[in-house]
Fold this protein.
Amino acid sequence: MTTTRSKLNFSSGPAVLPESVLRNAQTALWDLDGSGIGILEHSHRGPEFGRVLDRTEAAIREVGGIGDEYAVLFVTAGATAHFTTVPASFLGAGETADYCHTGVWSGKAMTEAKRFGTVHVACASDEKFTTTPTTARWSAAPRYAHYTSNETIYGTQWAAPPPGAPAPLVCDASSDIFSRPLPLAGHGLIYAGAQKNLGPSGISLVVARKDFVATERADLPPLQRYGTYVAERSLHNTPNTFGIYMIGEVCAWIREQGGLAAMEARNRAKADVLYDYLDRSETWRAHAAPGSRSMMNVTFRGPSVAAEEKLLAEAERRGMSSLRGHRSVGGLRASLYNAFPAEGLHRLVELLEDARL
Ligand code: PMP
C-alpha cells in the first residue's frame, strides 16, 4: 500500500480510505456503473442500487466469512445509537447484561444500558486503561455480554474475544472491524460505525445472528428493531445509499489485498514499527501495555505537554495530520487503519527521532 498523497492522515475517524476506492467513488458520483446517473442520485428501490446492495453484502460476507445464520445490516446511525438499541432490544427490567469495561466507549455503552436493566461489570481494565482484562466474573444468567474489541481512545485491543461468557457476545467493533479475521464464534451481534475501516460516517454495519435477533423485544418502533432491518434488508426507509456503496468498494479492496489475514499481517507490521521504536525511545513512551496494544490506534506520551505540542507543530509542518490524542486523555495518537500506508510509519518514526529533546 503506497500513497500519492502528500499529507499523512493519522485521524481516528473519519479516517484515511484506500486511494483507489476514493478515485472510483469520484467516477461513481457522476456515473454509477455506466448508468449515466450518479450513486447519490439513484433511487434506493431501483435496480442499479439493488446491484450495489447485493455486491456490498456479498463482499462483506466473503471477506468476513459470514454464513447465512447471520444477517448483514446497514443502519443509518453511528455506533453510539447501538449503545442504546442493544439494551433497548435485549435487556428488560429485572434482567442483567454483562459488560467488559475497557475505556471511554464501554463506559458510554454501560451508561445507556443502565436505563433498561442491570449492568454487571464482568471485567475491567486497570485504572489507567492500559490493558485489556485477562479474567472475567460473569453473572449467573446475563442476556448478553458486551465488549469493545478496540478502545479507540486509550489504544488497547482485545487479542481475542473475552472467553467463557455464558451468553451471546455483543461487540462494538467500530475501530477494528475488518482489520483482522472476524471472530464470529460466540457472537450474537457485532456493530461498527463505518468511518474508520469501512467508509463514511453516519452509517454502521451490523452482523447479527438471526436467532439472537429473534429474541429482541417486539414492541419498539420499527427503526429501533434489528428485526426490521433483517426482514426488510435494511430498506425499511431510505438507507445511506452512498455509505453502502462505499462499504462495498472498501470490502472489494480488502479482498484484492488478500483478505483479512493479509490485512492483519500488514496492520501488525505497521503497528510494530511504531511500538518497537517507542519501546526503544527514551523520550516517547507507549500508553498501552504489551499484550493489550492496539494495531489500529497507537497512543503515546512525551516527556511533557510542551514536548508533545512541539511535536504536533512539527508534524503539521511535515504534512502529518491529526496526531493529537483524544481531548479526554491528551497525549498523542497515531491511528493506523487498514488504508494507512506503511511508508507513513517510517516518516512518523523519523519525526519522533528528530523531535527528541
Ligand atoms: N465506539 C467506538 C469504539 C468508537 O471508536 C466510536 C467513535 N470513535 C464510537 C463507538 C462512536 O461512534 P459514532 O460517533 O459513529 O457514534
Observations:
- DSSP finds ten helices and 14 strands in the chain.
- The radius of gyration is 21 Å.
- The pocket of 4'-deoxy-4'-aminopyridoxal-5'-phosphate is lined by residues 13, 78-80, 105, 148, 152, 172, 174-175, 193 (CB under 6 Å).
